[in-house]
Design goal:
Radius of gyration of chain B: 17 Å
Oligomer: heterotetramer
Mean pLDDT of chain B: 92
Mean pLDDT of chain A: 77
Structural class of chain A: alpha+beta
Distance between the termini of chain B: 23 Å
Bound molecules: adenosine-5'-triphosphate, magnesium ion
Largest interface: A-D, 55 and 55 residues
Number of strands of chain B: 10
């Protein structure tokens, strides 16, 4: 029976080409929206994690620190989980860096003929989803160790950034949810219209004694087909957009985007889009056909 | 084969269409139903394949009490019954061949059998030369013959024909009638609703005349 | 009123449907066209309101050379012509009243006039009690009468009726025929295609018999 | 004739309620995408212009500046176009500010017992679209005036920010264009399907001699109606989203979003959405109906 239904579904797609094309077109376009959204999301994420990577822990040392204290501190820092690299910056290095950084503000500090800066350890942490938490933890556990003057990891900046991230995530999830719902609605509406344009056929099948399951199957198959082809087209469009961005914008925005690569949505998301649209195609057609069949039960 | 006991049917409760109709049609019978426009002929036929429900009474078709068949098994009743619809109900975007084959496809018949039987059915109504045309490219009579071919293609036990010759000229009408006679000889029970006096005159089968929802008379001619 | 000179029409070049048909139908005439199924009756009528084109010949309808009317002025021809289609062509989601009124609405008639004339037309075919029903809730004959009402509602100069009584019982058929006769008396030119021997027998108008694309004979009875 | 067509269009909408609802639903949802986009765009813009407002011109003065030079410089700055306020910051004020700012880095600078900072003028500029250019202009024209030590308006930061803005604008315009095209496609497809489901009716009208213009008008009206109602619904949805954001997020993200208000898209954009969707409804139906009418010309 399934082969029969498949055969029949193919025949149907052929003989309703107009409706089929319109339906696939709408689905493809509708799916491009969440696709685009995912694309932006993925890239924004990698963009933000680039920034995030800059966060590091600075441990400033007292000027009167003993050799032993310094060794202890270095050991302690090296033991903190996920610490990747601990660099010692002597007072002299700090001063040189400082002067280089403010070289263009000539005269601002030229009168200083002694070095006001302390020595420090700079700790790099491995990347990871809770990198910031790790850094915070390391900072807390180092606090109060003798020989440490102060600790800095841009608490304020991190706090702002984290609230921003929370905000952004809520926003994106909400947006994604709305998008998804909207797209589902469009797709199921489109399929409803396409089922509606075939009401004669459904009626006839009922009249001449087709098994309701036989009536439904080709519509399901068609819904799934429309969904799948629509999804594939939308991913194709997205890939085109990606290539366009790659060729035109990558690395051309100076320091701001230096080293930034536009990433394509992962295989997981692609599978999700195709899967979801198959599902919607199936559900959409199944609901419409069932509703239709119900309307004939007197 | 078909038994009706006191069947009552009203689309709007104030205007009953069938009032306590009782009738027994034996297996292998050939019965004409006639009566003026709006008498309830089509409604009677629609009840027999449970397209319409009835309000009171009992109907047995092919040993099934059709008032009691659950919705999801109705199709088993319907595929025993071939129907020529008064308005043909051909699918406009399928060819004539596909339209006729459709009645076999939905039963999951074998591909080869479908091709053979469809061809035979079209040959019987004289339409093989139009098999690749679409319904809208056919004359009224050709469409009607397609509908007849579809009703007969799966050799149903019962044939319900609703005004099957309204658009056919007398010659073809009697050809079609002899087609029905042949099917009847082969065992198909036939109920044929018609206005056509010509058709009624040509045959010697019993004629039931409906009027205002009741059986006016039952004529046994021949 | 209607003149055809050597009209030739083939849907597929190998099978001509009309071969060099010539005919003159004067204003106020009432002509029957008959012939077997597929003879080309409907095609002939379709040519008269330019629904189908023809391949060769000349056709004048209401003093217009219809081969030469530009596409965007065709409607002016068509609104002078009432047509009863063989398959009725009623709109399923409009009521009977709306279906008939539709023919007036599209001409931009006045609302009150529409109501009055539609009611009259429905009364003539005996369907006022069904005016709020939808086509699918009507019997075959009632649908056919609706189609007739719609064709006559705007008192066309020409009426083309394609098998207008195929689904009507003899009594109503002759009522409809007298309706046509009345319209004809009031000046409407009528061309009526039919198989019905009953109908042909009942009237004394000329009968043109088509066969295999040619005029077989023209009978003047009465 | 128009009144007639209107009457007829209304009757049609009534008798094809299913198709009409499906069509309006799809249009509303489809239009919500660019609507949402505009919403984001508008808010991002106001967010960014908030940041932008922080840019100001600092003119650092030489320590050995004369009274006359200082007065001249102040006058010059006050004359620069769009300058709103010129504040003088003495060396002492600067030092106090500096110490306050770095109070938490205790010990970092405590050993300094003299003031290394210069006096300066801080110039605020009025808001405006080319505020940054104005500042740049003012900076250039002040350069080299005697008594000025150096000028700072965050060139680097501005440069980054500007490339970022250009990037963002190109991105948003591209995205908006794609969105708009996609939405147009969905809407016109939807309308095409709804016209398609009425092919019988169009055919009948042709058959009984309706003026082609009369056939088209109700479809146009219906297309416009679908477009308008769809647009209004989508704007309503957007407003709901806006209210949701206002009640839930406004001002709750600490310093980052303090003082930020979510703005609703302006009346101009609303008019644009409604106008565009009316236009698309009209065009969509007009194209479909015309195509349909053409198919009957033999
Ligand atoms: N679905 C329906 N809803 C309401 N009324 C209906 C419905 N179907 C038929 N009717 C009414 O029931 C009556 C009988 O209809 P039916 O179709 O059985 O007549 P019929 O004998 O077949 O007539 P005809 O010879 O004209 O086809 C008619 O008056 C018709 O209007
Ligand atoms: N659109 C079309 N395309 C191709 N062939 C057509 C088309 N319309 C009609 N035909 C063919 O032309 C022939 C004449 O058709 P027409 O409808 O004129 O016959 P008719 O005399 O009205 O027959 P009936 O009495 O059965 O209605 C038929 O064989 C039909 O198949
Ligand atoms: Mg009937
Ligand atoms: Mg015909």
């Amino acid at each position: 029976m399934f082969r029969n239904a498949l055969h029949y579904a193919i025949a149907n797609i052929r003989s309703n080409r107009q409706v089929c094309l319109a339906s696939i077109g709408s689905i493809a376009v509708a799916l491009s929206f969440p696709g685009l959204f995912l694309f932006i999301f993925v890239n924004l994420n990698s963009f933000l994690s680039n920034w995030n990577r800059e966060v590091q822990l600075m441990v400033y040392l007292k000027d009167d620190i003993t050799q032993q204290q310094q060794v202890d501190i270095e050991a302690l820092l090296q033991q903190s989980p996920n610490a990747e690299m601990v660099t010692f910056i002597s007072r002299e290095d700090a001063w040189t860096d400082f002067q280089t950084l403010f070289a263009d503000k000539s005269g601002l500090l030229e009168e200083l003929d002694f070095n006001p800066l302390p020595a420090s350890f700079r700790v790099h942490f491995k990347e990871g989803p809770d990198r910031v938490d790790t850094i915070r933890g390391a900072a807390d556990s180092t606090k109060g160790v003798p020989g440490i003057e102060s600790i800095d990891y841009g608490e304020q900046w991190i706090a702002s950034f984290e609230t921003f991230l929370i905000f952004l995530k809520i926003f994106l999830v909400a947006l994604g949810g709305i998008l998804a719902m909207g797209v589902l609605l469009i797709i199921s509406n489109t399929i409803k219209l396409s089922v509606y344009s075939r009401r004669e056929e459904i009626e006839l099948m009922l009249l001449i004694g087709a098994n309701p399951r036989f009536i439904k199957t080709p519509f399901f198959l068609e819904g799934i087909f429309h969904g799948t082809v629509g999804a594939i087209i939308s991913i194709g469009l997205l890939k085109l957009l990606h290539l366009y961005f790659q060729f035109n914008f990558e690395g051309t925005f100076g320091s701001m985007t230096q080293g930034i690569e536009f990433q394509f949505i992962g295989i997981f998301y692609i599978a999700m889009i195709i899967g979801a649209s198959m599902l919607v195609g199936w559900l959409g057609s199944s609901l419409s056909v069932n509703q239709f069949l119900k309307s004939y039960q007197k | 084969m078909i038994q009706l006991y006191n069947v009552y049917k009203a689309y709007q409760s104030s205007h009953p269409v069938l009032i306590d109709i009782s009738m027994v049609i034996r297996e292998g019978a050939f019965v004409f139903i006639t009566g003026p426009s709006g008498a309830g002929k089509s409604t009677l036929l629609k009840i027999l394949f449970r397209w319409e429900k009835f309000d009171r009474g009992q109907v047995l078709v092919n040993r099934m009490n059709i008032g009691k068949i659950p919705e999801d098994r109705l199709y088993l009743l319907r595929r025993k019954i071939g129907v020529v619809f008064q308005d043909y109900k051909l699918l406009p975007n399928k060819t004539i061949f596909e339209n006729v084959a459709f009645a076999l496809e939905i039963m999951g018949a074998d591909r080869k059998a479908i091709r053979y039987q469809t061809w035979e059915a079209l040959k019987n109504v004289g339409l093989t030369h139009k098999k690749d045309a679409y319904p809208l490219q056919l004359s009224g009579g050709e469409q009607q013959r397609t509908a007849i071919a579809r009703a007969l293609v799966n050799r149903p036990k019962i044939l319900l024909a609703d005004e099957p010759t309204g658009n056919l000229d007398p010659d073809i009408a009697s050809e079609i009638l002899s087609l029905f006679e042949a099917a009847n000889k082969a065992g198909t029970t036939i109920v044929l609703a018609t206005h056509s006096q010509d058709l009624l005159r040509q045959s010697d089968h019993p004629i039931v005349t409906l009027n205002q929802g009741r059986i006016l008379e039952t004529q046994f001619t021949g």
